[in-house]
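Lecture 7 notes: from sequence to structure.

We start with a single chain of 523 residues. Read the sequence below before looking at the structure.
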Amino acid sequence: MWRQILVDADRSGRHISRQQYISTVKRIAVGLQRFGVADQDGVGLLSENDIYNYVLGDGVVAAGAVYSGIPTFVKQAELATAIQAAGFKWLFVAPEFLHLALATVKSLGLPPSMVIIFDPPGLDPYHGTQASLSHIIDGVDEDSFRNGNEGKDSTTREAFRFFTSGSTGPVKAAIISHRASALRVDFIAAMPLLDKPFLLVKGMFHVSGALVHMRACLGGYSVCVTKAKDAATVIDKIHSQSIGSTMITPRLMESMAVVLNSTDGARKPLDSLWQISFVGAPCRQETVDMFRKIIPDKARVNTGYGTTEVPGLSSCVIDDNWVTGCVGQVSPSTAVKIVDFDTLKEVPPGASGEVCARSAAAFSGYYNNAAATEKAFLPGEPGWFRTGDKGAMDPESGVLTLLGRFKEIFKVRYEEVVPAEVESVLLQNGDITDALVTSTPARDDDKDRECMAYIVRRDGAQLTAQQVVDFVASKLAAHKVPTGGVLFCDEIPRGTMGKPLKSELDKVVPLPESARFLAPPNE
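Now the structure, written as tokens:
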């Protein structure tokens, strides 16, 4: 397996060696230039995970263009927004997304010729009327390759445009320059070599997918790429392919813990595993504790913190002293400070505030969005990115702890409510499998708010809305209790990183047992 840097975990015998990678990137670059892709054109890819996703991406960049991966959960309106936000001139799509892509570009008044089928080597070639990757690289000689970026300013030249999550606001495309990308490569190259393969589960459109791909191409490890999203299949992949490490979302970790706890001989499938990391969203303490008991004694659980704009801010190995929100010490390549959210002045040591970060590998700004770029940085202090996260740093240990999102925090009767805290308590109830906390205008004062919760119940659970209110009231202060409403639903809309899609909440259909404006327990 070490001769292969990228392995298709879903299709036996399909893999890419380092030499094949280099050759294919060059052929793609030459083919794209001949096809008509111009310097710094925006090129997007809409595809589920595949070993060739970032081979295409690197070919795009080598041709002098700019690459973006697109979240695969998009609907037509969301794809249209993505096309506009990143300024795509060309759109590669896997065959199953062709109808969506053509309908979307038509709605935008764009030519259907901008849509290209993504049919990489090892999959069935496309024979329809659209242009395709297989056609573009057919007969291309890698010796014709000339680096489209040579002699250009690496600090201003764009390599990637990564989409932000868009969970609380409009989607934006974060620009990563060639200089920033090279620094990220240097950071990855300094990591130790691993002797067992890595399983890539998370969507490759995310910035973490690019970092994992970089590490594979540098020889850091062999990466097995899968489309699998369900816990049982991921567990099977770890076992059958002797996976040594992987990175998953907290949502998937919770699902895997449930599956492993309900299976006899649960330790056996994960015998090869020595490291598992969860990133992207908070994970509740009970899940982490349960997962650590299930995996082999030699294995360790890691967590970390980073953003699309500034990745790799911090990391830590979880031990018995870990608490939810702790993300470890800040990386030596990154500077962090905590500022007051309103005054933007640095807070006293140990006090909470907005986490701000500065790194040479940070993004340059948001594509074609000067207003959002200006708001993203501290005024008068170049390079200090405002994460929007509430956190505190221990003045002695330097350990950073995240306390919530400022955009999500709201006040009830002048008292602050952090949704993540209430959600953590709700998930301690065995009848609740998922929860999302938000706010609604107060019943007696439209200038005030009340806490409201979306709840997914365990199959067969008879939990009532009032019982949910009583449960939270027994553990938290009155202003944190969801008296504004308990909305039972079949599913809470989430992206592939596990983050809630707030823009989709108005489409959630409440089940009949839901209730609004409930009485607190003492009334």
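The CA atoms of residues 334 and 359 lie 5 Å apart. Keep this in mind for problem set 3.
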